[in-house]
Design brief:
This protein is an alpha/beta fold. It has three domains: 88 residues, Helicase, Ruva Protein, domain 3 (Orthogonal Bundle), CATH 1.10.8; 158 residues, P-loop containing nucleotide triphosphate hydrolases (Rossmann fold, 3-Layer(aba) Sandwich); 66 residues, Orthogonal Bundle (Arc Repressor Mutant, subunit A), CATH 1.10.10. It is built from 15 helices and seven strands. The protein starts with 15 loop residues before the first helix and ends in a 12-residue tail after the last strand. The relative contact order is 0.11.
Length: 374
């Protein structure tokens, strides 16, 4: 049995942070990250910072679930990186502590954009997707979901403005035990994508609006993450403020920068993040986030992106024409406009000009500004 010098205990019985420090000391390098999960984009903290009003409003909206009621639909609107998904998951985790019978299903509509995929992902989230195949009729999926009415289900529909078949929303409205929480960037763009049947049924929902974080707010969020993820003293308050300022109110970008800086310090064998490492990490993080977003584009979005990249700058008419030349089954112009709007929100594409005369080009990777947001 291998023992370490921490109270003469076996290595297997030492806490993970202590074990990492021990291994690091033996290999003459420093581990500055003690819990990398905290720096993940999908991490949900045990306590939230600077979003108490939004949590309270969403909690009040969902409160009927605690007394066998059905809440109105909840909408979370705001630009990218302001905590919409995190707050939705956090609030529902808090609700389930009070009422464990409530089940939660999460659907990323960027990837699950058809009626079949949405219904399947919900069934999978509540463990009812056994024996479902690609050939299973969509109406059969709906019937199977309708038979899960023994307990309430809350469905988080993230990036709901990416749905190509809003019939899935009508399905959820018809099921009295299903309560949707819909996440999107802008209300007017979301409702413009709805048909009249869906629009009329979801118009009365509660709106929870998110603004960009201020520099002080984002610095406080980063400090909370750093306290849990990094060794003490690895990063200074002034460095966290530098990251917050560079992230321009986008927590996703700020956390990515902190993660990149910590990993760079580890690779260089540093005990803390230097200003040089931080300066180099900021563009690295933006590039990594951009690459991950591009990789997440669905096929037709990627074709649009590639057409714009090849052209440098292109007018909508020429863009649609070249897109149609490259695909076998082109989407409608309305769907293409929806794709382009989403890519603008994610700082992949820049729309130059207004309506007539508008052109599209890729966002400069060196730019940290968010000119296209609200």
């Amino acid at each position: 049995m291998v023992y370490c010098d921490i109270e003469s205990r076996p290595v297997s019985e030492v806490s993970e942070p202590a074990r990492r420090r021990l291994i690091s000391s033996r290999s003459n390098r420093f581990d500055v990250i003690v819990d990398g999960r905290v720096l993940r984009e999908d991490f949900v903290p045990s306590e939230v910072v600077h979003r108490h009003d939004e949590v309270n409003l969403l909690s009040e909206t969902l409160e009927p679930l605690l007394s066998d009621g059905r809440p109105d639909p909840a909408f979370l609107f705001g630009p990218t990186g302001v905590g919409k998904t995190c707050i939705a998951r956090y609030t529902l985790a808090q609700l389930r502590e009070q009422e464990p019978a409530v089940r939660v299903a999460y659907v990323n509509c960027w990837q699950e954009y058809t009626r079949f995929r949405v219904l399947y992902r919900i069934l999978e989230g509540v463990d009812r997707a056994v024996d479902v195949h690609r050939s299973t009729p969509k109406d059969e999926l709906f019937e199977r979901l309708s038979r899960t009415d023994d307990e309430p289900i809350v469905v988080i529909l993230d990036e709901v403005d990416q749905l190509e078949e809003t019939a899935a929303l009508y399905d959820l409205h018809r099921l009295g035990h299903v309560s949707p929480v819909l996440i999107a960037n802008r209300e007017e763009e979301l409702f413009a994508s709805f048909d009249d049947r869906v629009r009329s049924r979801f118009h009365a929902g509660t709106r929870v609006r998110f603004d960009r974080y201020g520099t002080d707010e984002l610095a406080a969020i980063l400090a909370e993450r750093a306290e849990k993820a990094l060794e003490p003293g690895v990063v200074t308050d002034s460095q966290l403020r530098t990251v917050a300022d560079a992230a321009s109110g986008d927590a996703r970008v700020g956390i990515g920068m902190l993660r990149s800086a910590a990993r760079r310090a580890e690779r260089q064998g540093l005990a803390s993040i230097t200003d040089d490492a931080l300066e180099a990490a900021i563009p690295d993080a933006r590039t990594a986030i951009r690459r991950k977003t591009v990789e997440g584009l669905i096929e037709h979005q990627r074709v649009l992106y590639d057409v714009i990249a090849d052209a440098g700058e292109i007018e909508p008419g020429d863009l649609y024409e070249e897109y149609e030349r490259r695909v076998d089954e082109p989407k409608t112009n309305r769907t293409l406009r929806n794709y382009l709007t989403k890519m603008v929100h994610y700082d992949l594409v820049e729309a130059v000009g207004k309506r007539r005369g508008r052109t599209y080009r890729l966002v400069d990777e060196d730019s940290g500004d968010d000119e296209n947001d609200e």
